[in-house]
Amino acid sequence: MSYWSKFIARCILQRLERKRFNDFIRLVHSQHPLPSILVAELFLRPQPDNDVSPDPRIPPYIQALSQHGYVDAPSILRALYKYSSLHAQLNPVAQLGAMDAIDDEKGREDGASGKKPMRRWRSSSWLEEVMFYHVIKTMVEGTAFRDTRAALQLCHVMSKRMGLFTSVSTLAWGAFKT
């Protein structure tokens, strides 16, 4: 995974164009194969030197990875959900710039046990919107998932995402009304 992390950092630093990225990604994946969920997480998580907003080069890179079959719709949406800035709106401490420790099932336990809080984006809404359009496009094309398990994973992560969005909307509406 460290090779992939260095590769991603170099691609972003050098502003690698999609055509060259396509050439490199085939080579990197053949020499250092990873499951789609790990590839998606590496590209969609906050970078060591940037947790404010994802780099604009990320969506074209994800599209290229999708075309090669190195990431799929469920892995993209799972990574988007995991690192979404919406989580910070549910945790007042996170709004002060601290890292959020809430991650559905296990976040509260992690925070209580003293583990290091999860690092999330501070502003990821634009990336989430672009990636949702990409996932919708792959669904229309019929390439979003390969089997029924992936379809179930997609439904599961979408329901978690809808729950998160509903919670944040309810919280915002409650604050607006008072």
Automatic annotation (TrEMBL):
Q: What is this protein called?
A: Uncharacterized protein
